[in-house]
Amino acid sequence: MGVKALKFGGSSVADGIQLGKIRDIIEAEPEGRYVVVSAPGKRFDGDSKITDLLLMCKAQADSNIPIEQLFQVIEDRYNAISMQLGIDVDLESEYKEILKNLNNGCSRDYIASRGEYLSARLIAEYLGYDFVDTCGLILFDNKGRLLSEETNSALSEELAKHDHAVLPGFYGSCKDSGEIKVFSRGGSDVSGALVARAVGADIYENWTDVSGLLMADPRVVKDPLPIGYISYLELRELSYMGASVLHEDAVFPVRQAGIPINIRNTNAPEDPGTIITTEGTYRDDRLLSGIAGKQPFTVISIYKNMMNKEVGFVRRTLAVLEDLGISFDHIPTGIDSLSVVIESSELEDKLDEVLTEFEQRLHPDEISVVSDIAMIAVVGAGLSKTIGAAAKITSALRDAGINIRMLNQGISEINVILGVDSPDFEPAIRAIYDAFTK
Ligand code: ADP
Ligand code: ASP
Ligand code: MG
Q1: 11 lines ligand 1 (CB under 6 A)
Q2: Which pLDDT value is given to residue 328?
Q3: Cβ count near 89 (within 10 Å)
Q4: Is the pLDDT assigned to residue 280 strictly greater than 70?
Q5: Ligand 1 center to residue 244 CA distance, Å?
Q6: 290-437 domain in CATH 3.30.2130.10?
């Protein structure tokens, strides 16, 4: 019998009804021996995710605001699930411990991780699987970077001892200090991929609330077409640029091991979902795989005559960003100008400092700043090979009366990146989607 690693996201573990669906899925798939779970997510619009509630507790505790009432909301959510399903786990002592640590100044990462911890404890009991904590198995260095190989050894050694296990997603621990460390938000997808690799899974099933990856965000385009197959690289481009269905870093571990990812819908398990696999392993004659985008970005443009002749200009520009700890997304260049495209959240209150450093170190003729730019990625393995693909995008936007602020065909040649003013973000995605699908 093969082995599958299954990851269930926040909406799939949000309440007792959802957990009942998980049990049905597992019963229908006996190979699903390793299960990674998120913290309970939203049950309905306007509901709160447990992770957000825990982080709110931490913010309140740091400001000396009493947290007991808010923490009770979290306890109530887990107790309701436990009662609904008749699960016999003593969570009271866990709550006490977490509350005590909150009041004693625990770290943000520790508290963020407790949603997954409690969730996995409950679900392990419900499914009759072993609970295996990822603390001490998913390992990070002192700078918070994942230690991929050491994680793989530790996880596979431990999981070899368990025929069936439920593991909490989202966190691991620092190898040296043993302190809890979380991935960025949505990181249970990465935990699932690490577990899939460690157990040599035949497939990594990622169960969520949509029937796979859609060609565009369903909140922007009405009923977008589903994607049956997509390559790891295309998926990574889309998820990095905002197709939030899968964390962009979830691709690396499984891609390395050649394990396909199957995105499935817990609420419609009969749907086949999306298979993400090595490029070229499926017949693909479509031009466009998907469109994603995010905002806001800030574009800083630097003008200087004869810039192209000044050796080291780009390096000095990027050194400013490096020294200030800012990462950038793109640097489109011309002969006398260069722009850096930076996610606005990276700049926060550092914009003035960046501009001063640019002035002092680069002596430009002029610098301009445009904020509120949205970046859109049009992704498809066939894009670069097809004459007229870029023209299709630009004419769709022209017909919709949208001005393109930046256009860049990625070197990976599977994407075209464009910048538009923020108010044009959603209309631009819809116009491009229509041009390729209608
Ligand atoms: P989970 O809690 O299961 O990890 P997420 O909320 O992280 O689920 O991801 C699923 C959501 O991603 C969907 O509900 C959908 O709103 C959103 N989404 C954004 N872009 C896309 C896309 N291109 N295809 C499918 N879903 C998308
Ligand atoms: N619970 C975490 C979050 O809300 C991690 C996850 O769900 O993947 O981001
Ligand atoms: Mg997610």
Answers
A1: yes
A2: 94
A3: 16
A4: no
A5: 5
A6: yes
